[in-house]
Amino acid sequence: METVRTLLATACAGVIFFVGSAASAQTFGPSTYVQTSNSPFSVLDFTGGYFHLEDFEDGALNTPGASALGGVVAGPSNFTDSVDADDGFIDGLGRNGHSYIANGFELEFVFSDAVLGNYPTHVGIVWTDVGNTFGDIFGVSLVEVFAFDPDGVTIGFISSTVGDGRIDGTTADDRFFGFEHAGGIASLLLVMPNSQDWEVDHLQYGYVPEPATLALLGLSVVCLRRRR
Ligand SMILES: [Ca+2]
Ligand SMILES: [Ca+2]
Ligand SMILES: [Ca+2]
Ligand SMILES: [Ca+2]
């Protein structure tokens, strides 16, 4: 019994330490993306949670629990840079699909835990075009992606050079950026210092209930009871 008590006391001290320490997100990409199966999230099991993918092909951002600060759905047109497969053909072009165009230096996607039940543990986006860059090489430029937790703390950051020197819907340069964070991701901020007409597509977000988290919650309850 004494051994059990010692083990439990050690475990409880560990729980308090773990719960009190901020964790950073795991990052994914930038990686090539011409169709949904290129997503690193496509191999994950979201059973018991949820997964939503917005490809904008119905002309609207309307998947559950996601909204945007800035930007608008665009396409089809000779300059639309949708994910390649969205128009039915993987042919190096996304002109006949729909994308989401920034219309500014920043674009933020925000997730609602009230609608979703839980903040997503996985969030990703495909950067499809950098637009008319200035003070830089035409159609090639630095992009920045930030992930924030429910407290507004930055938990992940990826920056990379994206673009193929064209703005007319070519897809070889399209890149996936993603984050995984067990504590939840409340928003995704995209920043382009050198362009205002850049495009993204395939906003995707999911929640995986983690057995480790559930076990930790159970242990936390035991610890709280012991402290009373
Ligand atoms: Ca839609
Ligand atoms: Ca295509
Ligand atoms: Ca699309
Ligand atoms: Ca492109």
Word description of this protein:
- This protein is an alpha+beta fold and 228 residues long.
- It has one domain: Jelly Rolls (Sandwich).
- Helices cover 18% and strands 32% of the residues.
- The strands form two sheets. Strands 1, 2, 4, 5, 7, 10 and 12 form a seven-stranded antiparallel beta sheet that branches.
- Strand 8 and strand 9 (154-162) form a beta hairpin.
- Helix 1 packs across helix 3 (211-227).
- The protein starts with a helix and ends with a helix.
- The model is unreliable at 6-21 (pLDDT under 50).
- The site of one calcium ion has 7 residues, from strand 7.
What can be said about this structure in brief?
The chain has helices at 2-20, 113-116, 211-227; strands at residues 26-32, 50-54, 66-69, 72-74, 99-101, 106-111, 122-129, 141-148, 154-162, 175-180, 187-191, 199-207. By secondary structure, it is an alpha+beta fold.
Set down the secondary structure blueprint:
Blueprint: H1 2-20, E1 26-32, E2 50-54, E3 66-69, E4 72-74, E5 99-101, E6 106-111, H2 113-116, E7 122-129, E8 141-148, E9 154-162, E10 175-180, E11 187-191, E12 199-207, H3 211-227
Antiparallel strand pairs: 1-10, 2-12, 3-6, 4-5, 5-12, 6-11, 7-10, 7-12, 8-9, 8-11
Helix pairs in contact: 1-3
The chain binds calcium ion (CA) (4 copies).
Q: Please compute the radius of gyration using only Cα atoms.
A: 20 Å
Which CATH architecture is right?
Sandwich
Mean pLDDT reading: 89
Instruction: Characterize the biggest β-sheet.
Output: 7 strands, antiparallel
The number of domains: 1
Q: Give me the number of helical elements.
A: 3
Work out the number of β strands: 12
**CATH T-level topology:** Jelly Rolls
Proportion in β-strands? 25-35%
- CATH level 1 name: Mainly Beta
- Would you list the SSEs in sequence order as H and E? HEEEEEEHEEEEEEH
Q: Given the C-alpha coordinates, what overall shape results?
A: globular
Q: What quaternary form is this?
A: single chain
